[in-house]
Amino acid sequence: MSEFKKVAGLTGMKDALPPETARWERLEAIVRDWLAGYGYQNLRTPVLEHTRLFARGIGEVTDIVEKEMYSFVDPLNDERLTMRPEFTAGIVRSAIEHNFLYDRPRRVYAMGPVFRHERPQRGRYRQFHQIDVEALGFPGPDVDAELIVMLARLWRLLGLKDIRLELNSLGQAAERAAHRAALVAHLEKHVDVLDEEARRRMHSNPLRVLDTKNPAMQDMANAAPRLFDFLGAESLAHYRGLCDRLDDAGIAYTLNPRLVRGLDYYNLTVFEWVTDRLGAQGTVCGGGRYDGLIELLGGKPAPAVGFAIGMERLLDLWQQDAPDQDPAECQIYLVHQGDEAQRRAAQIAESLRDAGLRALVHAGSTGFKSQFRRADASGAVAAVVIGGDELASGQATVKWLRAGDAGQGQQESIAFGQLAGKLQQRI
Ligand code: ATP
Ligand code: MG
User: Fold this and answer.
1) 217 FRET partner, CA 20 to 30 A, in 59, 209, 408, 418?
2) How far is CA 38 from CA 32, 102, 372, in A?
3) Domain Aminoacyl-transfer RNA synthetases class-II family profile: where (predicted)?
4) Residues 117-173: pLDDT tens digits?
């Protein structure tokens, strides 16, 4: 035994093992096809960025920047760095840096891990994964609608049920300023019911106070002036334009005037897709318009809109709505006895793969019995047996394994040269 004390993984950072990883890969493949269907292209940014990108981009007084970021000083050059807590700021930085969005508007996406130092619980991890989609350079509600229609299609593709859309409009800066004054006055009037966090935020980010889940503050929040009532004609027209298009597509939505989202950069459209089937962490996807962010991060002003899906939450819901058996390791499991048979089995397996079949050659123990146990456990449809007799006759024994199949337990002989063709036809 080694002296080494075993090391566990980090709290809130999960491993994914087979067969669960097969679901991840399937989801990723479906997502790439789905995005390609709408002309979205992949844009990849590094995990590490300058801390000030997020402090500026997400907003100093958001939860993420205040307390959730994994930040450190690079000891080699004293730079403050942060592991991305979301994709948008990095994508915008990249688009500005490479002049990627000025010649024409762009539809891009990214998929991968993001990092937030939160209290781990179901649906809330410290390393989690997002599918992030951004439409850069588009001003109109048509593209807001495209994103939402597109999401409805993904839920359909996955067979998800009970997922509903909430919408709000955060208007423009002047409308928010007028509302903010009224809201702060309301909060000051009810300061006695505010919890500590709300008191801290009432002047720095009063809109977020309304996002509270504290039951004692619900009456106060419900009675607060609604930003939606401060919207001018243009903002309302944008909202109406979105709703008309959702109606065209037959997508149901509810206006939630308290929906604000946890990042500071949004204006006009914001939305969330929520479900009651994931416990307390019911938001599967959140998004909205952020027309000011590109300029805020040093680019030429350009409008933009996007969303992020939490993949762990999506997978949890998908598992509930479309459970299935563990995927098989292979379709054909090759068992063999003796050195020569092993070498022949390896060659045959290559010919099966040439024919597009998934084949696994037994490795390790030699007894036929334990090899058949492994063949069963692999989930293969058939075992191909190569022993002394088979080598002598040039015919493999094929044993059909899968319960429920007509052929289960049946056995037949097939010439080595015909195996690939015959198995391909039958599987
Ligand atoms: P929440 O209110 O749940 O904290 P958020 O507003 O911080 O969410 P966003 O920054 O909008 O979330 O991220 C987009 C999506 O990423 C969320 O809708 C959710 O599905 C997912 N998500 C956010 N934080 C986590 C986390 N810690 N673990 C797993 N998924 C997460
Ligand atoms: Mg959060």
Assistant:
1) 59
2) 10, 20, 47
3) 24-327
4) 999 999 999 999 999 999 999 999 999 999 999 999 999 999 999 999 999 999 998
